[in-house]
Design a protein that fits this description.
- The structure holds 2 protein chains of 2 kinds.
- By secondary structure, chain A is mainly alpha-helical.
- Chain A is built from 12 helices and no strands.
- Chain A folds into 2 domains: 40 residues; 235 residues, MetI-like (MetI-like fold, Orthogonal Bundle).
- The radius of gyration of chain A is 24 Å and the shape is globular.
- Chain B is mainly α.
- Chain B has 2 domains: 68 residues; 245 residues, Orthogonal Bundle (MetI-like fold), CATH 1.10.3720.10.
- Chain B has a two-stranded antiparallel sheet with strand order 1-2. In chain B, strands 3-4 form a two-stranded antiparallel ribbon.
- Classes of the chains: A mainly alpha, B mainly alpha.
- The interface between A and B is large, with 87 and 87 residues.
């Protein structure tokens, strides 16, 4: 092979490094421009009424998110209540107990397939199963159950990673001291894996909070005039309410942008609290 | 009855029996408890299969009743989708719209995501990597409704102004979804690149290759199946993306290839039309939602299975 001149090779190197840098720049610029344009659009509409008023499609100055914020808190809370115990239990089973056989492979394949199902399909299932077959109607509980099966695979996968990250010596030590397998898991593995399990819950909560497509399918109350007050109550959530305002004439874009800021604020608050707690726990363990 | 123990004291047999039982009992209790806990955990894991079955059967059931009214032949071969006026249920226009938008998004997102992964893995100094990775995670964590809104207020006016695009157009969706899949591609490709042993790259560098040459001829081929797996996953994500298309792409369902005009995808159609009362007011439309959903599920499932296969293959190579 004829060796190419060093110069040409270096130029090629530089061109490609330039292209790689462009890819990073696109990602970084998107975050900056996205936040910038949302804030700029939201500024004229930032007033307390956005937080405290109910939805309105007639007057953008009166439109707010009160019901949507409360609905989001209800649904995120209930979804975590259902999905975390189930997902962590399934993750612990797959990591600690599951024998290597066909059944286990089926379980793991189901988890990874579920994680790949488009979210709007969960909406259809929620509509057919929870809303209609179970007769729950368009309620907080139907939405929470729908989102529970949506985030379940993510919780399982992150819980598996958290449990896997705990060194085997911890389990062996506990069992050598006479504890049973479950005692070793409950007293040693789970506490040691808490930071990772917190990551699982952050992920689940963030997914739940921002998910719009399935809830559009199972909610028809973008003009809810009261605060959701329990599992049986009709609901509205932030992403769906934001979408409802986006679909209105451009005069409502300011309110929509303000809603985006509320949603991002909730997401950031939740994430940073969980990350601070996680870091503190991590320092304490090892 | 008494007996003499080792220390010369006397204790009753009953007391001895009792201590014996006490020393045995917890084991039985534990074993029962262990089995019980194990059973509970198994039930939680089995939920994955139950939900998968429920989704498959649920969609299949509603789809079957739809196919009793509209033949599957008509559904899958028909080139006209007009569920309201003409009652034409040919899904091909929706499939075409979906493939154009997802394919276009991949043309943008896959190279950018791979480029970002290669840069982060191979070139970036530790400090830059530590700033860029969280930003990519933020990008991955932004709700899709926010992405859609961003497309509508920022990218759409630009396309209208410069390229004469319609107010609702497919191109905005392509660009926004392209950006949206960057973090998926970059994080999974980076994992695949990391799985290639450093020795291979160092060997190439030692033989006089430039960094880019070592990358493009040794590391990337070594991570090839993992990178393709990340591409497939991103494509499947783009196919199922709902909110962005719903917000920016409009609802034109005639087959047309120009993304500057309005377009509709399968996922966006479902979200647009599947509102609560549709089940009672329009059974045929209600059934068609499930038939479209079922088709969408089959497409994404096929892509995901392929991606999983490839990924498990690259895992085996270097471990």
């Amino acid at each position: 092979m004829i060796p190419r001149s060093r110069r040409r090779r270096r130029v090629k190197e530089l061109i490609f490094v330039g292209l790689f840098l462009v890819s990073i720049a696109v990602a970084l610029a998107t975050v900056v421009i996205l936040l910038g344009s949302v804030v700029a659009t939201a500024l004229p509409s930032l007033r307390p009424s956005v937080l405290f008023n109910f939805a309105s499609f007639s007057n953008p100055d009166q439109a707010g998110y009160a019901a949507a914020i409360v609905g989001t808190l209800w649904i995120v809370g209930l979804t975590l209540l259902f999905s975390l115990p189930l997902g962590i239990a399934a993750g612990v089973y797959l990591e600690e107990y599951a024998p290597r056989n066909q059944l286990t492979r089926l379980l793991e394949a189901s988890v990874s397939n579920l994680a790949g199902v488009p979210s709007v399909v969960f909406g259809l299932i929620g509509l057919a199963v929870f809303v209609r077959a179970f007769g729950l109607g368009f309620t907080v509980i139907a939405a929470s159950l729908t989102l529970t099966i949506l985030v379940f695979p993510y919780v399982v996968i992150t819980a598996q990673e958290a449990v896997r990250a705990v060194p085997q010596s911890i389990r062996d030590g506990a069992v050598a001291l006479g504890s049973t397998k479950w005692q070793a898991i409950r007293r040693q593995v789970l506490p040691a894996g808490t930071p990772g399990l917190l990551t699982a819950s952050i992920l689940a909560a963030s997914r739940t909070m921002g998910e719009a497509a399935p809830l559009i399918v199972i909610s028809s109350f973008s003009l809810l005039r009261f605060l959701p007050d329990g599992p049986k109550s009709p609901f509205s959530v932030l992403p769906v309410q934001i979408f409802a305002y986006i679909s209105q004439p451009p005069a409502f874009h300011g309110v929509a942008a303000a809603g985006v800021l509320i949603l991002l604020f909730l997401l950031i608050t939740f994430n940073s609290v969980a990350i601070v707690v996680r870091n503190r726990l991590q320092r304490r363990r090892w | 009855m008494t007996t003499v123990d080792a220390n010369g004291g006397t204790i009753s047999v009953r007391a001895r029996l009792k201590t014996l039982l006490a020393s045995l009992q917890p084991i039985y209790v534990w074993e029962a408890g262990e089995a019980f806990v194990r059973g509970l955990l198994f039930v939680a894991a089995a939920l994955a299969v139950i939900v998968t079955l429920a989704i498959g059967l649920g969609l299949l059931f509603e789809t079957a009743s739809f196919f009793a009214v509209v033949s599957p032949w008509e559904f899958y071969i028909g080139t006209r989708w007009s569920p309201d006026i003409a009652r034409a249920f040919g899904v091909l226009p929706l499939v075409a719209g979906t493939l154009i938008i997802a394919g276009g998004a991949c043309l943008i997102g896959l190279p950018l995501g791979l480029g970002a992964a290669i840069y982060l893995r191979e070139y970036a100094p530790a400090r830059i990597r530590e700033t860029v990775k969280p930003v990519l995670e933020i990008l991955a964590g932004i709700p899709t409704v926010v992405f859609g809104f961003f497309g509508l207020i920022t990218i759409r006016p630009f396309l209208q102004e410069w390229f004469g695009a319609d107010f609702f157009n497919g191109m905005t969706a392509i660009i926004v979804i392209g950006i949206l899949i960057i973090p998926i591609v970059s994080s999974l490709s980076e994992d695949a690149l990391t799985a290639v042993p450093v020795d291979l790259r160092d060997g190439a560098l030692a033989l006089g290759a430039t960094r880019f040459e070592a990358m493009s001829r040794v590391v990337v081929p070594g991570a090839f199946s993992g990178i393709v797996a990340s591409f497939l996953l991103a494509f499947s994500r783009a196919v199922g993306e709902t909110m962005v298309v719903l917000i920016v792409a409009g609802q034109n369902v005639s087959v047309q290839l120009n993304p500057l005009h309005s377009m509709q995808t399968m996922a966006a159609f479902i979200a647009r039309r599947a509102t609560g009362d549709v089940s009672t007011t329009d059974p045929a439309l209600y059934g068609s939602l499930f038939a479209v959903g079922f088709t969408l599920l089959l497409i994404t499932l096929a892509i995901n299975v392929l991606s999983d296969r490839l990924r498990s293959r690259f895992r085996e190579v270097y471990e």
